[in-house]
């Protein structure tokens, strides 16, 4: 049987990746993961091992992030001066620009769509598992994914229809 702390430790890279994608700030993401781990350890008696620990941890992290956003909304927005680009910076390579554009587009998505998109695409979770983490029905998750993907196509100017080859 795997020890609780060993399983918890194995989940840290995935939690960090998800937190960084949610917050778009490495320091804030690390704080969020630390808070998640502290809460999980403090409340490990509440974990009922009906399945893997990972979904429970993602649920904790998601709820902590939502709470932090609500608190931040009441305080107002802070501008991180380190992320403001310099005016005289030369253009980057096209691939890098496309990634930056996609990152910015994901940042503009509503939180519910962003959470769904990141859990399914970045973390590779099944729809049912992601829906359980977010506390929503699977159909709702799929709707949020569809809206998120449509928004990203619109914001990045990507084609609405996949390129299909005609077979003759």
UniProtKB/TrEMBL annotation:
Signal peptide: none
PANTHER family assigned: RNA POLYMERASE ECF-TYPE SIGMA FACTO, RNA POLYMERASE SIGMA FACTOR RFAY-RELATED
GO biological process: DNA-templated transcription initiation
Superkingdom of origin: Bacteria
Gene Ontology molecular function terms on file: DNA binding; sigma factor activity
Protein name: Sigma-70 family RNA polymerase sigma factor
Domain called PhyR sigma2: residue spans: 9-61
Domain RNA polymerase sigma factor 70 region 4 type as annotated: residue spans: 100-152
Transcription regulation found in the keyword field: yes
Family: Belongs to the sigma-70 factor family. ECF subfamily.
Species in which this protein is naturally found: Devosia sediminis
NCBIfam families: sigma70-ECF
Keyword field: Sigma factor, Transcription, Transcription regulation
InterPro entries: PhyR_sigma2, RNA_pol_sigma-70-like, RNA_pol_sigma-70_dom, RNA_pol_sigma70_r4_t2, RNA_pol_sigma_r2, RNA_pol_sigma_r3/r4-like, WH-like_DNA-bd_sf
Pfam families: PhyR_sigma2, Sigma70_r4_2
Keyword presence, Transcription: yes
């Amino acid at each position: 049987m795997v020890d609780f702390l060993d399983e918890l430790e194995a989940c840290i890279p995935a939690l960090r990746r998800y937190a960084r994608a949610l917050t778009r700030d490495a320091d804030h993401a690390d704080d969020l993961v630390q808070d998640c781990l502290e809460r999980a350890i403090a409340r490990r008696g509440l974990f009922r091992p009906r399945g893997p620990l990972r979904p429970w941890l993602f649920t904790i992290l998601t709820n902590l992030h939502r709470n932090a956003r609500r608190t931040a909304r009441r305080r107002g927005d802070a501008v991180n001066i380190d992320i403001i680009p310099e005016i005289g910076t030369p253009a980057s390579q096209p691939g890098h620009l496309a990634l930056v554009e996609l990152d910015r587009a994901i940042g503009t998505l509503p939180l519910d769509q962003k959470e769904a998109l990141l859990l399914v695409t970045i973390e590779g979770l099944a729809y049912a598992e992601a829906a359980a983490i977010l506390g929503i029905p699977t159909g709702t998750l799929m709707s949020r994914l569809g809206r998120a993907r449509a928004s990203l196509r619109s914001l990045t100017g990507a084609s609405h229809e996949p390129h299909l080859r005609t077979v003759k």
